[in-house]
């Protein structure tokens, strides 16, 4: 009887195992089908449809989502992708992270148009605050940080490195993963209950370097951590120390990593120096423009003050001239009767002979010109004045002698007689 019972129990376990295997294969087929459909929609830029297709396999079932998650044999409390094969898990999560990167790169306007404002902001927030890393660990790897596939870790770190403004969370997550994968721990009370968990656990041991592919992935994680994340957090000394103490890197790779780190630091310092010089030049240019603007403003202010002064003077000056002109005109313009009375005496007054007036005016003009010319000559050429004085003195001395005076008079008298005789002869000829 016991043998029959044991045989029945064995048959029941066999049927249960076959049923579980069949269910697992069916679920894996559904996951692969959903992944292919989502990838096709993504390639044709139908992003909302791609999201709705991939979400069911990366999200826990609604009935289990808020429950206290615990391991069981088929991991039904977690997202369906958690029970998929390693290759399928890597493909699904890598696709989802690539999808999120594309959503962020859409920009606010196109992203809100495609997904709606609240949905687009929620998707972008996963990348910028790093919460997507927690979602992947919790829903896809049963909350075990060290179990996350290395390729998925690379994609997670790259996504946060690209879109997260702070790399502190990225550094913390990478350090937790590196520590957990290098020193795996086992919780016998829970982990031993999951046969599917134990089937995928060995691939994470031995520092994640069981195969050349695992080693390359591990090196990629170290590169992201030491040459990108730590420098972004200004952890240059710690990055150098980590590289030197790493057990995964051989001497050649350590030297290459340290050289790359040194080059990155020099490049950053040169960039900061150029930016500082550029800021200084911009500041100097702004200061120069400010001074020029201030000088122009002062010049315009002075010109405006001068213009107002001129306008004020012009407004005052015409009023005074008009008043003087009006007053003078009022005094000088006589009445009609006074103009007539004044005109009659003027008509009776005898005008001077024109010939006498002209001679008198010409004589006065000649005297004035002589005085002006003499004054000018005296000022411009004192020697000429001296020679004139000498001539006058010689002339006076000459006329002081009587014989010379008589001789001059005789010459003048003879000359005048000749002139009179010549005039008389001309008159006689004209009569003839």
TrEMBL record:
Stretch list, region Disordered: 188-214, 266-354
Ranges of biased composition (kind: Basic and acidic residues): 266-278, 286-326
Lineage: superkingdom: Eukaryota
UniProt keyword list: Membrane, Transmembrane, Transmembrane helix
Listed transmembrane segments: 383-400
Name by which UniProt lists this protein: Peroxin 26
Organism: Lophiostoma macrostomum CBS 122681
């Amino acid at each position: 009887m016991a043998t029959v019972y044991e045989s029945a129990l064995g048959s029941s376990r066999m049927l249960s195992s076959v049923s579980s295997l069949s269910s697992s294969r069916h679920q894996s087929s559904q996951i692969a089908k959903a992944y292919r459909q989502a990838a096709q929609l993504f390639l044709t830029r139908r992003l909302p449809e791609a999201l709705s297709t991939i979400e069911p396999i990366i999200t826990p079932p609604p009935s289990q989502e808020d429950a206290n998650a615990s391991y069981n044999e088929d991991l039904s409390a977690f997202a369906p992708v958690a029970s998929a094969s390693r290759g399928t898990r890597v493909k699904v999560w890598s696709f989802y992270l690539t999808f999120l990167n594309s959503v962020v790169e859409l920009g606010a306007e196109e992203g809100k148009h495609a997904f709606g404002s609240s949905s687009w902001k929620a998707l972008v927030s996963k990348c910028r605050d790093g919460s997507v890393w927690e979602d992947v660990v919790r829903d896809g790897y049963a909350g075990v940080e060290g179990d996350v596939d290395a390729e998925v870790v690379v994609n997670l770190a790259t996504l946060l490195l690209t879109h997260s403004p702070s790399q502190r969370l990225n550094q913390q997550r990478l350090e937790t993963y590196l520590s957990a994968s290098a020193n795996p721990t086992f919780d016998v009370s829970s982990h031993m209950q999951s046969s599917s968990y134990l089937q995928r656990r060995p691939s994470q041991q031995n520092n994640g370097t069981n195969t050349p592919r695992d080693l390359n992935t591990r090196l990629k994680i170290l590169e992201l951590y030491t040459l990108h994340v730590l420098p972004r957090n200004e952890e240059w000394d710690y990055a150098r120390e980590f590289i030197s103490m790493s057990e995964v890197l051989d001497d050649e790779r350590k030297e290459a990593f340290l050289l790359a780190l040194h080059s990155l630091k020099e490049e950053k310092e040169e960039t900061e120096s150029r930016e500082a010089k550029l800021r200084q030049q911009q500041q100097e240019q702004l200061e120069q423009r400010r001074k020029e603007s201030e000088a122009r403003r002062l010049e315009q202010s002075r010109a405006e003050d001068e213009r107002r002064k001129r306008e004020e003077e012009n407004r005052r000056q015409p009023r005074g001239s008009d008043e003087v002109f009006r007053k003078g005109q009022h005094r000088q313009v006589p009445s009609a009767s006074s103009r007539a009375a004044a005109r009659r005496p003027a008509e009776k007054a005898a005008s001077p002979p024109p010939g006498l007036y002209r001679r008198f005016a010409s004589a006065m003009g000649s005297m004035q010109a002589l005085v002006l010319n003499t004054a000018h000559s005296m000022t411009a050429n004192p020697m000429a004045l001296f020679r004139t004085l000498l001539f006058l003195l010689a002339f006076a001395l000459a006329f002081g002698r009587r014989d010379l005076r008589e001789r001059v008079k005789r010459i003048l008298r003879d000359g005048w007689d000749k002139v009179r005789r010549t005039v008389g002869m001309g008159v006689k000829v004209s009569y003839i």
